Amino acid sequence: MEVLPSFGLEGQVALVTGAARGLGRAIAVALAHAGADVAVGLRSLDTAAEVVSGVEAQGRRCLPLAMDVLDLDQMHSAVREAAAEMGRLDILVNNAGLGPSNLAVDVTVEDFDLTVDVNLKGTFFASQAAARIMIPQRSGRIINLSSQAGFVALPTESVYCMTKAAIAHLTKCLAVEWGTHGITVNGVAPTFIRTPGTKAALSDPAFERDVTERIAALHRIGEPMDVAGAVVFLASPAASLITGETILVDGGWTAR
Q: What is the pLDDT of residues 93-102, one digit of tens each?
């Protein structure tokens, strides 16, 4: 009998970093909607209410965890706690990220180090911690948030662009190394999305018009669930033969 693609995540356990708001919250809720129980990594547990209620509204269990990706000990502990409390760990979504804007000639060492530590170092060591659980399971899905900024140059975003390009290549490296253990590693690279983090920039009508024009094919600003859908797909059994890939969710920006 022909086996049809499955997009459901019933019986799966996911962990989403940086899950308090924006993309992280949308991804956590979408994974729950697909059937997964979800642990949410948060810099502060005081920010848990909205994402926990969103996941639980889908009828799934939600476990809030203190998980500052700048604190490697806390991060490793949170990954272990997610697996211990939920019984397993099937999906890791490395969503936590930031990008202070500045002209390259004015970038400070402090902003450089912070951007690299959160975006790249955090992604690597969260993946390492998850892989230590997934390898004995002989299965797992790791999904990294890159960005279209890893594929095109954005003025005042040189360090952010650098880290997001590195994440796309790290995704390939980890996919090759961990594939023999039944783990897939993929990335999602969004364009500008309406989130609390982009609200200030998109509130400038001229900037919003420019972004909309550069999103060449669809000419609209993305919403968090546009990105969450790609994450759910990569986490699902339907994507079992996809690894080392980064899917651009950019409305056609990089097609121009």
A: 999 999 999 9
Q: What is the longest distance spanned by two Cα atoms in the chain? A: 62
Write down all domains in the chain, each with its CATH number in brackets.
Answer: 13-255 (3.40.50.720)
Q: Which of 152, 147, 149, 171 is nearest to 244 (CA)?
A: 171
> Treating both helix axes as pointing N-terminal to C-terminal, what angle do 22-33 and 224-235 enclose, rounded to 10 degrees?
50
Q: So which residues are the catalytic ones?
A: 160
- Indicate yes or no: pTM above 0.90: yes
pLDDT tens digits along 174-233:
999 999 999 999 999 999 999 988 888 888 899 899 889 988 888 899 999 999 999 999
Which residues contact residue 129 at a Cβ distance below 8 angstroms, ignoring those fewer than 6 apart? 75, 76, 79, 80
